[in-house]
Amino acid sequence: MAVKNEVLIEVVSDVVCPWCFIGKRRLEKALSLLGRPAAQVRWKAFQLNPDAPKEGINRQAYRVRKFGSLAYSQQLEARVAEAGMEDGIEFHFDRIERTPNTFDAHRLIWLAGREGVQDAIVESLFRAYFIDAEDVGSPSVLTKIGTESGLDAARVEELLSSDLGSSEVAADELKARTQGVSGVPTFFVAGAQIASGAQKPEVLASALGAAC
Length: 212
Hints:
The protein is an alpha+beta fold. 52% of the residues lie in helices and 12% in strands. It has one domain: Glutaredoxin, CATH 3.40.30.10. The chain has helices at residues 18-34, 59-67, 70-86, 103-115, 118-130, 139-148, 153-160, 166-178, 201-211; strands at residues 8-13, 40-45, 57-58, 98-99, 186-189, 192-196. Strand 1, helix 1 and strand 2 (40-45) form a beta-alpha-beta unit. It is globular, with a radius of gyration of 17 Å.
């Protein structure tokens, strides 16, 4: 069993999943409730739209195809926005123009994990997409996020101009799917799934406490 301050939590998520952003906030609250702010959190890749073209797709058109109508899509967004407000997140869905391919964003998260700034990168990606309505599939946006969040500019340039991290990200996603992950966020401790979805902090804290 892990030592109290060495517990490792793995979160399978996608940067264009609003519930994953909410789940991040609730995980932080759950760890505070447990008195474990030093817990290690590792973010693992999952693409909600793995077949999205490299340049992304028009978000409104995509949402209409996925949910059947713009009105229903907006109803769903309103529910998410209400939930987000409870956790201090002000979603700006109306400003987001594109649904990006997130593979490169996940490669950036992978690199950040090797450099010890993964939490900062994940936070910045969520904020860039959901609050600032930036295209997190764009190399220039990813470069800005990477360097502003603590990564060396040369390392980010190397990443985005090569296939560095591609096999690792693909392997993480394949592992998640073979573990039965079909929606995100999904939380694991010691390789065992303990929770799925953006559970309330108290529920997540209970699951984490039992697992750790």
